[in-house]
Amino acid sequence: MKLSKKTFIITGGGSGLGAATARLFVEGGANVVLCDINAEAGNETASALGDNAKFVQCDVVDEDQVQAVVDAAAQSFGTIDGVVCCAGVGGSARVAGREAAYPLDQFKRIMDINVIGTFNAIRLSAMVMTKNEPGEDGERGVVINTASVAAYEGQIGQAAYSASKGAIIAMTLPIAREFAQHGIRVVTIAPGLFDTPLLGRHPEEKKQALAMTVPFPKRLGRADEFASLAKQIVENGMLNGETIRLDGAIRMEPK
Ligand SMILES: NC(=O)c1ccc[n+]([C@@H]2O[C@H](COP(=O)([O-])OP(=O)(O)OC[C@H]3O[C@@H](n4cnc5c(N)ncnc54)[C@H](O)[C@@H]3O)[C@@H](O)[C@H]2O)c1
Asked: Which residues approach ligand 1 with their CB closer than 6 A?
């Protein structure tokens, strides 16, 4: 699928990997509808991108709010050709901590936003994409999800985050298989360490130390490198039903 004149919903589009993807897609001639729980970041990112970008504040976990994003995209730009699911949260705690067991509400919140939120955006966007006129090869749409290398090498404290990202990887193939009949591809990116506000919580020294753990190149990934892979996934019709690591060969240590 070519980017030009196509319309994409980008969840978590106000910041980091989602915002970089929105920028690259608009440069490629696409329309983007950014959905983010953070209205300030979402509005700022969308307004910098001009008339081909819209922002709708939304919590990806909420059915009605995601439906409103889908409706806004279809109304503003005619249809939806793809959804890029970047909304996500981290969080770390020991399962059997010194003071207390892992707080269940924290575990549920990470699962809700990362898993239910991703699934919610996929299912409601797909209801529009299945009705698209088929393009080359009968293609009607593309779904791009964001997992993490923590799904494979979760560190101590990451039980919830790793479980949530593992679930995104696990749902990739069954959804790709189901959507094959509609000509909709489903691909997941598993990033390593990327320099975004999510990682920005760490002090600069800690970020440098993390960068040194990447075999090559010895640095954190840039958000535009994630965006570039997302663009390739849109454009390359043979990518489907797979999770692609984007990580400079990092394999995370236990802690
Ligand atoms: N940065 C990294 O190193 C890294 C590595 C692996 C995976 N990831 C994943 O990439 C994705 C994007 O992360 P990022 O690094 O760009 O972080 P980020 O914090 O810059 O962006 C995440 C965005 O998601 C939004 N968001 C959070 N909860 C939401 C909700 N309930 N509804 C709607 N929007 C919500 C936030 O407001 C934020 O704008 C996440 O899923 C993250 O887990 C990031």
From this structure: 11-12, 14-18, 36-38, 41, 58-61, 86-89, 113, 117, 146, 148, 191, 193-194, 196-199
